[in-house]
Structures are given as C-alpha cells and as structure tokens.
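subagent[fold] <- orchestrator: predict structure for attached chain, return tokens only, no commentary.
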Amino acid sequence: MMRTPNTSHSLKWSWLRHAVQIAALLLFAAPLLVAGWGLFGVSVGGDDPVPAPADLPFFGSLSSSSIGGVTLLDPFGVLQVVAASKTFELDWLWFALPVVVLYGLVRARAFCGWVCPVNLLLELVDALRRKLGIKVSEAPVPRRAKMGVALAVLVLSAATSVPLFESFSPIGAVNKGILFGSVAGLWTLGAIVAAELFWGHRVWCRALCPLGGFYEAIGRMGVVNVRYDRTACIHCDACRKACLADPSILDPVLAGDDTCVRAGDCMACGSCVDACPARALSLGLGKGAKPAAEPAEEGSAAAA
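subagent[fold] -> orchestrator:
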C-alpha cells in the first residue's frame, strides 16, 4: 500500500533554528545595551561615566567571549594565532577546548547551521534569488574544498605572521559590525552575497568557508544526527533540494546504504527534515547501526 505523505509537522526545525540564530545576535548585543552603550560603534548618552560591558557576567563576540569570568576562544582563530606567532600558550588551549568539545559533542557544523550569522543572511539572499528567478550553479566548487581552504589559511597565516581569516572574516563583519561598528570583512561579505546571487548556490558555506572546513574535519563525532526511515521514503527528492550543507551528503541514506547522515558536513539544521512530506527523516540523538548487507542470492553463491 502506498504511504500517504504527511505534510503537517509538529515542529519546524527551521523556525527554531532561525530563532536561535537571532537570539545569538541579541545575546552578544545585550551587554552593550545593558551597560548603556550603543551598537554599531555608536556612542549614546552624555559625558557621564557608564559601566564597561566587559565587567558584566557575559561579554564578547564569536571570536572571543567571557562567561562568568571564563574566557572562550574561537578554536580556528586560536590555530591562526599559533601559526602566525609561531608560539603556543597553554591558556589558549583551555580557552578553545570547551568550544571544540561543545560542538564536537553536538555536531561540529551545528555552529554553521544554528549560530553563524552569515548562514542566516545567506538564507535570506537565497530566498531573494528564488523570488527574482535567478538561476545559479548548484555545485561550482567541490564541498570538501573548504578543508583545503582552511589549511591554506593556516599556512598563509604562518607565512605572513597575520591571522589571515580574522582579517577578512565575513562572520566578524556581521557579528563585530553590529557590536562595535567594525568594517573588517565587509568586502568579503559583499563578495559572498554577490556570489550567492549570481554564481553558486550556498557556495561559500558549502565549499569555501575555512571555518566550515575546520568544523567539517571534526564533524563526524556529533551525537545529533539526521536519521532515515527507508520504509517511509517516497523518493520525492525534497530533502536534497532543501539541504543547506550539500545534497550529496544525503546520498548514502537515500540509496539505502545507511540509516543516518554521517558526513561531517551535516549542519544538523533540520531543513531536510522539515522538507520531507513523508517524515522519513528525523533529527535525534545517536547514529544507529548501518544496515546489514543483504545476503547474496543462492544462484550467485553456487556460481561462485
């Protein structure tokens, strides 16, 4: 009997994800506003002294933050500083390790799907491009290229003695621009938006972002995974069209070779889950076992 697609979903992961992305921006902005400072580097008030945001329990940016006196650092930023300075401080490891452990336990590229402001912006650009009817290439650059870009950033950071990606990071352009009025990375962000509109679908997040490449390298360890129910799938391809990371990461499950998406590229964003009309995909804990290999036919065994 053919299964009737169920188009109603009790939870829309995409809406929850967007709420988390916006909440992250507000979280970083809150200390400045609470202290009476302005955003975008704009001063407010008169000559009266105001408290320093850094004295509050939480303050910082996606590159460096302080929570209750505990410093947290972007691990890829730390690697760039180590490469550029040719030195290593043990404190840098302790400050970056909680971030690595957190995203490593969840799913490393969950940062890209649930926190990164560039991903939120590019989803809006993606919607605009579809509304304008602009056609772009689906995969102009291989998705694994970003790991090569990440390695190149570290090598060039060592060669130039400058933390290279931090100098033009579009993530900093959004995050630090809102908080402190920083213009570093704005040209990169503009180029990424133009590429998204006219060159390739999700080309920055899928194939070029070095931070995404770093998280992809450790991304297979996470416990939050997209699971697949082969019996429910109607092979409508809606999940592939919705995938923010890269449709190819769904190929093993859609071919029946696996029961969950194991690729380190998966952002656990839930877009494919929301798009599936038959609820063949779900977002949950654990990977599950790979399906057992089907036994060979008796005739084949006899011939062998």
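orchestrator: received. Logging for downstream: Residues 1-10, 296-304 have pLDDT under 50 and may be disordered. The two ends are 37 Å apart (CA to CA).
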